[in-house]
Amino acid sequence: MSRTSARSGSPFEAAIGFSRAVRIGSTVAVSGTAPVWPDGSVDPDPAVQARRCWEIAVTALEELGGSVEDVIRTRQFVVDAADGHAIGQVHGEFFRGVQPASTMVVVAGLLDPRWKVEVELDAVLD
User: Fold this and answer.
1) Cα torsion for 71, 120, 104, 78, to the nearest 10°?
2) Which pTM value belongs to this model?
3) DSSP 8-class letter at 20
4) Which residue, 30, 35, 46, 57, is CA-closest to 88?
5) How confident is residue 3, by pLDDT bands cut at 50, 70 and 90?
């Protein structure tokens, strides 16, 4: 099977050696995706951060031939449980019609202290 990758321009991709997303056959895995804008800024609002994460992740999925409808699993890592509702609402904006298997986990911290959420997704394309 062929392997294709998508990149998002994150400086961590080259430094750490990973791809934003990888497709092998009909399976796509999108890496942990943080709420960073192209200029390196991060909005402090957790809902804005979640929306930015999902925009980046879905763009990578689309670059590899998939769409939101192909998503079978999502993961959301949140730093503060109090932000869970706002972050979950944004998840619903993207996936309400698809309803993938989903996990939201509260973690002690993420790579950058400005980040309140980081997301991943897996998809199987028809």
Assistant:
1) -150
2) 0.95
3) S
4) 46
5) very high
Structure token digits, residue 55 = 């925009």
Tokens of 89: 């609402």
* Coil/strand/helix, residue 16: helix
The DSSP 8-state label assigned to residue 44 in this structure reads S
The two structure tokens encoding residue 36: 């960073």
Could you report how far apart the first and last alpha carbons of the chain are, in Å?
Answer: 15
The number of residues in the chain equals 126
Cα separation, 66 vs 85, in Å, equals: 27
21: nearest Cα among 53, 51, 60, 62: 60
- What percent of the chain shows pLDDT beyond 70? 100
What is the total count of domains within the chain? 1
Domain CATH for 96: 3.30.1330.40
Which distant-in-sequence residues (6+ apart) come within 8 Å of 50 by Cβ?
35, 76, 86, 87, 90, 91, 117, 119
- Domain limits for position 116: 3-124
Within 13 A of 65's CA, how many CA atoms are on the CB side?
13
The two structure tokens encoding residue 82 = 């109090």
